[in-house]
TrEMBL record:
Listed EC numbers: 1.11.1.-
Organism placement in taxonomy: Bacteria, Bacillati, Actinomycetota, Actinomycetes, Micrococcales
Keyword terms, alphabetized: Heme, Iron, Lyase, Membrane, Metal-binding, Oxidoreductase, Peroxidase, Signal, Transmembrane, Transmembrane helix
Protein family according to the UniProt entry: Belongs to the DyP-type peroxidase family.
Protein name, entry field: Deferrochelatase
Length: 431
């Protein structure tokens, strides 16, 4: 099946003027796979009017949106396995995605729209986001290690451009990773105010990818667990604690430049300048056990108060923790508490930009909620900014040891932002 679909994409008309009737006329002979593959080719050349600017996050810029831009409340993230048989076909996918994302993030319909196309063909846009506006949609795209090299094969001539920082994350103590929730050649993180807008974006990008990439895993997140701007209130995670208090915030550009954006890559890695690395971990939380844990123990495990999110050493939510302050039985913030283990003072000064989401996927076979935190962090280098902290947590953080289980994992190189007329990943393919 791979070949005909690729042929459909690789043989795409050079002129954008081809009619959908023509495309589907050809597709009719080749079956539905060809039809949808062809749709992806021509998916975004007719645009409806942009929605009011108030809910639009600019897609174009030096960096991709969806990183330091204000964290929205809803997310749909999907990893893809690339099935394209040529480099050209992969590039055509990234170009089609770029055009589609530029439209979607402005609240525009894809292609000829959800209702205005050929009456005898499936609509270009699936339609469920009609009337919902842009909803602050951001779509952030990244590349997994396997895009560069898979099973010893350099499928797309990218092996020489594999950044050293795009490692296979090591196994951490207690990891219970599921293959079907881990890895992927491409990642697409769609965040929005409205869940249907985020789901619509991923669904339509998957549709455009048909024949060139297929969804490997996906996750819906329903509530943000971080703030990325000082203008945002700190949300709560499913343990009921404020999460994101000490997060890196967009207003602190110096720290963001130091800890998030790649700026000194050179030679074959220069394409990553302006980019970053996304760590994604699906972390199941043992909600039922937590709910039977005393308030004293809950606060001790986190190292902050539940109500205000203030450090147990005193002050308000944004007071710096004082790890030396002693109580009757030792430090007020326990050395094995989560914030102590995660604090930059105990991690060589490193910080990360967390942008995770609460999730629930119903209940497991034992009647327990399959719920937790889909952890996402953006870092300049996971080798310095994630692996040591996660190793320490996996070994010493009582919260992690007793209440958390990592079930999914991924590390992705997120290329720089797109300039008008350019496409996602252009620096990788054209440098
Ligand atoms: C390896 C990195 C981290 C993982 C994994 C992680 C999981 C995780 N965290 C919470 C709840 C909270 N985390 C908080 C702070 C915090 N967490 C990390 C890193 C990881 N967390 C950092 C770097 C920090 C900031 C530390 C600091 O500088 O003080 C907090 C406190 C509030 C806050 O600052 O955000 C909570 C609460 C859960 C529930 C969880 C996995 C499910
Ligand atoms: Fe944390």
């Amino acid at each position: 099946m791979d070949k005909p679909k690729d042929v459909a994409n690789d043989d795409k008309p050079k002129s954008r003027g081809i009619s959908r009737r023509g495309l589907f006329g050809v597709a009719g002979a080749g079956g539905i796979g060809l039809a949808v593959g062809a749709l992806g080719v021509n998916a975004v050349n007719a645009a409806t009017d942009p929605k009011p600017a108030g809910t639009i996050v600019d897609f174009y810029g030096d960096h991709q949106a969806g990183i330091v831009t204000e964290a929205q409340d809803r997310m749909h993230i999907a990893a893809f396995d690339v099935t394209a048989s040529t480099r050209e076909s992969l590039v055509s996918l990234l170009k089609d995605w770029t055009e589609a994302i530029a439209a979607l993030t402005q609240g525009r319909e894809i292609g000829e729209g959800a209702t205005d196309g050929n009456y005898d063909a499936p609509p270009d846009d699936t339609g469920e986001a009609l009337d919902l506006g842009a909803s602050h949609l951001t779509v952030t795209v990244g590349f997994g290690r396997t895009l560069f090299e898979k099973d010893g094969k350099d499928r797309y001539g990218l092996a020489g451009k594999l950044p050293e920082a795009l490692i296979d994350l090591p196994h951490f103590v207690g990891d219970a990773l599921e293959e079907g929730r881990s890895g992927g050649d491409l990642i697409v993180q769609a965040c929005a105010d409205d869940p249907q807008v985020a789901v619509h974006a991923v669904r339509n990008l998957a549709r455009i990818a048909f024949g060139r990439a297929s969804v490997r895993w996906s996750q819906i997140g329903f509530g943000r667990t971080s703030s990325t701007s000082t203008t945002q209130a700190t949300p709560r995670n499913l343990f009921g604690f404020k999460d994101g208090t000490a997060n890196l915030k967009q207003e602190n550009a110096d720290l963001v430049n130091q800890h998030v954006w790649v700026s000194d890559a050179s030679g074959p890695e220069a394409w990553m300048n302006g980019g970053t690395y996304m760590v994604a971990r699906r972390i199941r939380m043992h909600i039922e056990i937590w709910d039977r844990t005393s308030m004293r123990e809950q606060e001790g495990l986190i190292g902050r108060t539940k109500k205000e999110g203030a450090p147990l050493s005193g002050g308000g939510e944004f007071t710096e923790p004082d790890f030396g302050m002693q109580g009757r039985e030792g430090p007020l913030i326990a050395v094995d508490s989560h914030v102590s283990i995660a604090h930059p003072n105990h991690n060589n000064g490193v910080q990360m930009l967390r942008r995770g989401f609460n999730y629930t996927d119903g209940s497991d076979g034992l009647g327990k909620l399959d719920a937790g935190l889909f952890f996402i962090a953006f870092v300049v280098d996971a080798r310095t900014h994630y692996v040591p902290m996660q190793s320490a947590m996996a070994r010493n953080d009582v919260l992690s040891l007793e209440y958390l289980r990592h079930t999914g994992s991924g590390l992705f190189a997120v290329p720089p932002g797109v300039k008008p007329g350019g496409y996602l990943g252009q620096t990788l393919f054209e440098s």
